[in-house]
Structure formats: structure tokens, C-alpha cells
Design brief:
The complex is a heterodimer of chains A (about 400) and B (about 325). Chain A has about 400 residues and is mainly alpha-helical. Chain A has 13 helices and eight strands. Chain B has two domains: about 20-120 and about 225-325, 3-Layer(aba) Sandwich (D-Maltodextrin-Binding Protein, domain 2); about 125-220, D-Maltodextrin-Binding Protein, domain 2. In chain B, strand 2 (about 45-50) and strand 3 form a beta hairpin. The radius of gyration of chain B is 21 Å and the shape is globular. Classes of the chains: A mainly alpha (about 400), B alpha/beta (about 325).
């Protein structure tokens, strides 16, 4: 009868309501919108740039930069020299300085944050209230203000340029920076480094092996000690066998001569500028306050029954914390900790306010003003921060999967 | 997730490059005010007074442009910008005119997509040291620590000067002038370098302004002037001729006090300037009494100079190179004819 007609309309309907065809349609639509916007943006950028008499391109990276940069970790690694170094060097210096302050900041913030976080849960009233005050003060004042407070507090309290506070004969500090002997590797130092790496690998291997042995046989083996001996003695032995292939260049302090030449001499020894110390300290203190709260919440997330159970087993409070509470709390702590690490890295760009030559300051500031390639340079800046953040995330995700609850 | 990252990044990039740039005058007329980029606080040039009102030589140029277009000194809004942000703010269309003690250099003129509409202050970079150092010349500064701003020509000039004289130095570059002053005051640096007009202004912020001396060396040419976007000749002409009208008015002896009586003058040059003869304002696309309004409400260039930076102000800057050419200075405006 008209069954064939019904069938036909069924097929038509099924074409619209078919979930598979539908999903393909929307995926294609999304793709068209995304690529259409991309093409539109690209076109728009190019036309607008051309109207302003500008062009896109990365040729500027090869040009020499004509400005001086504050001596820091980055300029030391690159060997920055005005009139010889290029904008690529400036870019690398910015990355290195950002990384230096970010890495040391993460280490300091983690150590301080864990300590303060555990203090906050202490039974000792003084420790507990000290930790609470620390957290509330550092968490509730904006980071930029902390940068200024720390920087000008540092500057106001250091001896003037032509004076210095000497900790030892070779280590001293004044308003221009912290000075210490600089290591200068000589021929053969490479072997000491190789020995150090071998020692490290050996150390890890021994600890793993002794732990496994302990789990299987129940016999203790001092793998940690043996590993430590390997770690320290092997490179030291090689170092002395090769005749100490490391030279220490001392900083030189002069108190006579032309007035601007007095004080520590440029280029001698190792110098850490007060700007870096201030950025590092402010970032570490500020982030430590957040990490302390994360640690506290992580520990509190573990039921008190765990503590009671381990006490009942005869474990001491310290051992309970280290072997029972912290390993479980880490599962709660690590994901938000990752966010704090990313924040610290990105917040380091505020350092431009107090003259620390990190990426945004030296490349996105001085260099951008000389070259005027906003689109290219901002794009490079974004790529760098994106890669930093993605690498940190990948590492922390790996760490998170290592420590997560092993379900049996 | 990865796709959304890239898309977001490119969308953010695209934001930089939107906004109209031709027809600036029409845009300004329809929004009803001029958006002017100024400094974050440089006494005498662009600075907010106690009541929050913007004053200064650079500010008055913006007000003069607003008067020329709208006949109203308050038809202008100010955007305080760091030296780092200023060019991006102008090329993105965030501001219509940049009047922020900006040095006219070839790179900026040819590579940044900008046009300099004249020079409203002839400056040069100088160096300031504490008086107690016993230093009297810039050539004695070997080994000095030097504080300055990021994103300016001063970084390049000071580097050139020290390299040329074979002197070693460390450059500490801050984003904002306030921090430069504070760090110099705290003793982080031996030398504070910026344009001499800037030194005169910033020194007022030091804890003891009189115990610092400005060294005699002028290590660079710093012609400071208003900047507009390239590609809009009409707007470029308006800004250029607003400044020229103020200089011409001083040369003709027309001030805010006597402009009304000068309106009846028989001098054809005065008549052309004040719009009683010819149609110079119409040709610019603004009212014919544009220059009359500027002089009536703001005054001529000399009045603006004396009021903001001259010898009777805290900055105490003599006219020097900024005197009219008839008085041995460099201020010279093409004729209105």
C-alpha cells in the first residue's frame, strides 16, 4: 500500500535525527567556525598592520641590540655584550632570568609553605599563631605591594655602594648586590660532573634496591648511607685525582681610587643583584602563604582515625606524620600545588616594576620599544609562558599519578 | 583543550589589531571628546593636581586640540601611560593623540607606524648625581650604577655615551619613574639619567632636592612632541597646526588677554590666524575660529610654557632652545597662508 511512502519519510527523518550524522555536522560546523575565525583574524591583522606601514616578520631577531642590561644570571650565561649581542640574546636572557627566579622561588615557596602549613596544625600555641599570622599577612596584601615593600626594605637596610657588610673574607653584601666567589671550571671538570651524575644514579639505585630487599626479607640494609657515600665521595675523589680542576674567582673590594670605582669591582666574582633577591623573596613568601593553606587543608582532609590508628600501633607523632599522614595528604595537596607553581611563574612578570630584567621587562619592554614588532613579540612572550606552564603541568601531573592511591 | 589554547591565543592577538584608524576626526566628533595619552605624572608636562585635574605643557597641547575641534577645553580624556605602553596604546586606537614627552627619532617615525606632529619641547638627556660626590663632569662616571626607565631612548643614549667614552657602568631600568626616583634616593644608583626636563621635574620628588646636581653634559638630542597614527593625514594636520598656531600666536604677540582686541587687527597674517580672513579651519575640517579659540582658552605657546615649566614654576626651566627663533631659540612655525 503506502508502506513504501512511510518508509521513505522514515529514512528522511532518520537523516536529520541520526545522532551520527548530527554529530558529524556539528563537528564540521565547529571546524568551519574555528578556521573561519582564524583566517579572518589573520587577514584583519595583516591588513591593519599594512595600513599602519608595518610588516610581519622575525628579521629583527638578528639585529644587534644597543642597550645595556643589568648583570644577572641570564647575561652571565649568554655573555651579553652591547653592540655584539642580538635581540635573540635579549630574548634568551629574559627567559633565563624568569626561569632562575621561578625555579628558586618554587623551591623556597615549597619548603617554607610546607613548614608553615604543618606549623599551623601544631599543638604549640606560639608556632600555630606565628604560622596563622604569616599566612594572613602574606596572602592578603597584593604581590606588587610586597615586591615594593621587600625591595625598598632591602635597599634601605643594605650598606651603601662604597661600604660592605662582610660575612667572610670573600662573601659580602651591599646595596649593589651580594658578592661571593665565582666558580670557574677548568679543563677536566667535566669528569667531576660525570662522576656526580653516576653517583646520583647509583644513589637512587641503592635506595630502591635496599627498600625492595627490606620489603622482601625484612632485613635492613643501609642503602641510603651507601648511596650518600657514593654521591659525595666519587665526585670528590675524581676532583682531587684530577688536581682540583675548579678555580674560585674572588670578588674584589676597593676602598680607594676614583669615587665611582670604589666598592665591589664589576665583573669580578659572582654577584646577585638586590632586585633578584627582592623578587625571589617576595614571590616565595607570597606563594608560601598559599601553599601553607593547601598543605593544611590536605592534612585536615585525612581522617583523625588514621592518626589514632597509627598511635595505637605504637608509632611516634613524627613518624605518624611522615609515614601515614603526609603520603595520604599529598594526593589532596598536589593538584592545587600545581596551580600555585604556575601562578608563581606567571607572577614573576611583575618583577618589571623593580627593575629585575626578566622576560616581560627586557624583551616585552625595552626591546619591544626599540623594535616595535608588537604582534610578533607578544606572540613569542605568550609561547614562552605557555610552554613554561605546560611543562610544569606535565611534570606535576606525572608526580600526581606517582603518588595517587594505589588501588588493589 | 589544546585547540582552545591556540584559539584563545590567536584571538587575543587579534584584539591588538582591531579598531579603526582612518577618519579619526569623525570618530572623535561622534564620541564627543579627544582621548589623549599622557605620562603617569611628570610635573610641568603632564601631572594631576590636588583636585585631580590634569595640568602641564603636554596636557595643554591636548586641551588645545580639543578646543580646536569642540571649542571646549574639557572635551578631552586622559590616559596615563608608561613609556612602555604608549606606542601600543596609540597604534591600537586606544588613544587619539600621544602627548607624553615622547622623543622624535627616525626609528619611531619610520618603523612604528606613527607620525610626529611637531616638537613642543626641545630637550636633551642629562645626568644627575648627589652633590657630595664631588663630580663635575659626565666623563668622571666610570664604574657608576645608573638608574633609568625601561622602554625609552634614554637606555640607548646612556649606553652609547658610556661605550663611546670607554667607561664601565651598570644600568638598572625600572618601569615607572616613581621607582627610579625612590631607588636613586635610596642609594641604589650613583646617577639618575633621563631628559633634563624630566630631571628638573623628578628631582622635586627627592627627599632633599637641593643636594643633587645636574651635570653639564647633554648627551642626546631629545625633540619631544605629539604623536599620531600614520595613515590619517587629516588628523595629523590638525594636531600639527594646533601646535603651529600656538607658536605663530606668540610670534605675533597675540595672548589670551589681547586676542579679542587683536580680532579687529588689520594685519592679514593675524586675520588669517584668527579666522577673520580665509577658510583655514574649514580646510582642516574644523571650525574657522579654531585658532582664536585655542588662544582664548589656552593661550599662545609662550604663555603655556611660562605657566607650566618656566622660571617662575618649581621646575625653573629657562626658555633656552625653546625660545622663539626671533629670540635665538628653535621654536619656528610655518606661516598660515
Amino acid at each position: 500500500m503506502n508502506s513504501s511512502g512511510v518508509k521513505l519519510s522514515d529514512e528522511k527523518e532518520s537523516l536529520i535525527y541520526n545522532p551520527k550524522i548530527r554529530s558529524i555536522f556539528f563537528q564540521i560546523l565547529a571546524l568551519v567556525i574555528v578556521f573561519g575565525s582564524l583566517i579572518l583574524l589573520r587577514h584583519n591583522t595583516l591588513v591593519n598592520l599594512e595600513d599602519r606601514g608595518k610588516s610581519l616578520g622575525f628579521h629583527f631577531l638578528g639585529e644587534t641590540s644597543g642597550f645595556s642590561i643589568l648583570p644577572t644570571f641570564g647575561t652571565w650565561v649568554v655573555g651579553y655584550e652591547v653592540g655584539v649581542s642580538t635581540y635573540v640574546d635579549v630574548f634568551i636572557i629574559g627567559i633565563l632570568n624568569t626561569l632562575a627566579v621561578g625555579l628558586f622561588g618554587i623551591i623556597a615557596a615549597t619548603l617554607l609553605g610546607f613548614t608553615i602549613g604543618i606549623f599551623r596544625l601544631s599543638n604549640n600555641f606560639i608556632l600555630r599563631s606565628f604560622a596563622a599570622t604569616f599566612v594572613e599577612i602574606f596572602r592578603n596584601i597584593p604581590l606588587l605591594l610586597w615586591l615594593f615593600i621587600v625591595y625598598f626594605a632591602v635597599l634601605r637596610n643594605l650598606p651603601a655602594k662604597r661600604e660592605a657588610l662582610f660575612f667572610t673574607e670573600n662573601i659580602g653584601i651591599n646595596i649593589t648586590g651580594l658578592y661571593a666567589p665565582a666558580p670557574q671550571p677548568l679543563e677536566g671538570f667535566l669528569y667531576v660532573l660525570i662522576a656526580l651524575i653516576v653517583g646520583m644514579v647509583g644513589c637512587i639505585f641503592f635506595i630502591k634496591w635496599s627498600t625492595r630487599r627490606f620489603l622482601i626479607t625484612g632485613k635492613k640494609f643501609p642503602g641510603g648511607w651507601l648511596g650518600l657515600i657514593l654521591l659525595i665521595c666519587l665526585p670528590l675523589a675524581i676532583y682531587y685525582i684530577l688536581g682540583q680542576p675548579l678555580n674560585w674567582e674572588d670578588p674584589i673590594f676597593k676602598s680607594d681610587g676614583p669615587v665611582f670605582r670604589r666598592g665591589y669591582q664589576a665583573g669580578m666574582g659572582m654577584m646577585i643583584v638586590p632586585e633578584m633577591i627582592a623578587v625571589w623573596a617576595a614571590l616565595s613568601l607570597y606563594t608560601a602563604a598559599f601553599i601553607a593553606e593547601i598543605v593544611r587543608s590536605g592534612i585536615l582532609a585525612i581522617s583523625y582515625g588514621q592518626t589514632e590508628a597509627s598511635f595505637a600501633l605504637g608509632l611516634r607523632p613524627g613518624t605518624t606524620l611522615r609515614l601515614v599522614i603526609i603520603p595520604q595528604a599529598m594526593r589532596v595537596i598536589v593538584p592545587p600545588l600545581t596551580s600555585q607553581y604556575l601562578n608563581l611563574l606567571k607572577n614573576s612578570s611583575l618583577a618589571v616594576a623593580i627593575a629585575y630584567p626578566e622576560l616581560v621587562s627586557v624583551f616585552g619592554g625595552t626591546a619591544l620599544n626599540q623594535v616595535g614588532k608588537e604582534v610578533e613579540m607578544i606572540f613569542m612572550l605568550m609561547l614562552v609562558y605557555l610552554s613554561f606552564s605546560i611543562i610544569t603541568s606535565i611534570f606535576m601531573n606525572w608526580f600526581n599519578s606517582k603518588i595517587k592511591l594505589v588501588e588493589r | 583543550m589544546k585547540k582552545s589554547f591556540i584559539f584563545g591565543a590567536i584571538a587575543a592577538l587579534g584584539l591588538i589589531s582591531t579598531g579603526a584608524f582612518a577618519g579619526t576626526l569623525d570618530d572623535i566628533k561622534s564620541k564627543g571628546f579627544v582621548q589623549c595619552g599622557v605620562s603617569q605624572g611628570l610635573p610641568g608636562f603632564s601631572n594631576q593636581d590636588d583636585s585631580g585635574k590634569w595640568t602641564g605643557l603636554d596636557v595643554e597641547l591636548c586641551r588645545a586640540v580639543a578646543v580646536a575641534v569642540f571649542g571646549d577645553t574639557n572635551a578631552v580624556k586622559f590616559s596615563p601611560l608608561s613609556s612602555k605602553q604608549r606606542f601600543t596604546a596609540l597604534s591600537s586606537g586606544e588613544i587619539d593623540i600621544l602627548s607624553r614627552n615622547t622623543t622624535w627619532t627616525m626609528t619611531r617615525d619610520t618603523q612604528l607606524g606613527l607620525n610626529f606632529a611637531g616638537v613642543n619641547y626641545y630637550d636633551g638627556q642629562g645626568m644627575m648625581v648627589p652633590a657630595g660626590m664631588g663630580v663635575s663632569s659626565g666623563t668622571e662616571l666610570d664604574g657608576a650604577n645608573i638608574c633609568t626607565n625601561t622602554g625609552t631612548t634614554t637606555e640607548l643614549n646612556i649606553t652609547d655615551y658610556f661605550r663611546f667614552n670607554n667607561m664601565g657602568f651598570n644600568l638598572v631600568a625600572f618601569e615607572k619613574a616613581d621607582e627610579v626616583v625612590a631607588a636613586y634616593d635610596a642609594g641604589r644608583c650613583d646617577v639618575y639619567t633621563t631628559d633634563r626636563s624630566g630631571l628638573a621635574a623628578q628631582r622635586l620628588k627627592l627627599s632633599n632636592p637641593d643636594s643633587h646636581v645636574v651635570l653639564p653634559e647633554i648627551i642626546s638630542k631629545e625633540p619631544l612632541g605629539p604623536v599620531v597614527r600614520q595613515g590619517d593625514d587629516q588628523w595629523f594636520n590638525i594636531v600639527k597646526w594646533v601646535h603651529n598656531a600656538m607658536v605663530n600666536a606668540e610670534e605675533m604677540g597675540i595672548t589670551s588677554a589681547n586676542v579679542d582686541s587683536k580680532k579687529g587687527s588689520d594685519n592679514p597674517a593675524v586675520k588669517r590666524l584668527l579666522g577673520t580672513e580665509g577658510s583655514f579651519g574649514d580646510e582642516l575640517g574644523i571650525s574657522n575660529d579654531w585658532a582664536y579659540n585655542i588662544i582664548k582658552h589656552i593661550g599662545n605657546y609662550g604663555e603655556s610654557y611660562e605657566r607650566n615649566v618656566g622660571p617662575n614654576t618649581p621646575l625653573k626651566l629657562a626658555r633656552g632652545a625653546n625660545a622663539l627663533w626671533t629670540n635665538g631659540g628653535l621654536m619656528y612655525a610655518p606661516p598660515i597662508r
